[in-house]
Specification:
This protein is 38% helix and 30% strand. It is built from four helices and six strands.
Length: 181
């Protein structure tokens, strides 16, 4: 009977891993935040979410999801600014302003291959670069890159959830870097 109990536990572990997917996230901070106390404003200049996959431009469903993901990324930046001491401005301003750019590349991959083959076949990925500049000098004040891979999961995994996870962790890294500067 104990054997069945252990077999049941093993089955549960395998099922859970399969259900939630095999994904990884790596954040590399290339430029640590420093001396952010003097800034009063922030201008979110550019938020880009795109896919360079061959058929992405022709896939209406994927283009709709990309539009939703772009909105999510912008909302995460807005949320950060609203919870900080900074004022969101609508144009580049020379008065102690930070400029933020976020670039998100999505590779949707092949869900069918992720589901039925696994082991990295049909892999999806999300690569995000968050760059913060000084408006006066155009000097990079913070830069971090988050790379996420989706190798499998329930029904091939969900690239949208991977993207959300990727951006949330990148924003957390930025908040922590600013807080420690």
């Amino acid at each position: 009977m104990k054997y069945l109990s252990n077999l049941g536990k093993l089955s549960l572990i395998i099922f859970t891993t399969f259900l939630f997917g095999c994904s990884s996230l790596k954040i590399n901070t290339e430029v640590e935040a420093s001396n952010f106390d003097r800034y009063e404003n922030v201008y979110i200049r550019n938020v880009e979410v795109y896919s360079n996959e061959r058929n992405a431009a022709k896939n209406d469903a994927l283009q709709e999801r990309i539009s939703e993901w772009k909105q999510f990324a912008r909302e995460q930046l807005d949320t950060y600014v609203n919870s900080s001491d900074l004022t969101l401005v609508n144009a580049k301003n020379r008065n102690e302003t930070l400029i933020i750019d976020m670039d998100v590349e999505v590779v949707y991959g092949n869900r069918f291959l992720r589901w039925f083959v696994g082991f990295g076949a049909g892999r999806g990925k999300v690569d995000t670069v968050l760059t913060v500049y000084d408006a006066k000098t155009n000097k990079i004040k913070f830069k971090a890159v988050a790379d996420s891979d989706l190798k499998g999961g329930n029904a091939g995994g969900d690239v949208g959830k991977l993207l959300q996870h990727n951006i949330r962790h990148l924003m957390k890294e930025y908040r922590n870097s600013v807080a420690s500067s």
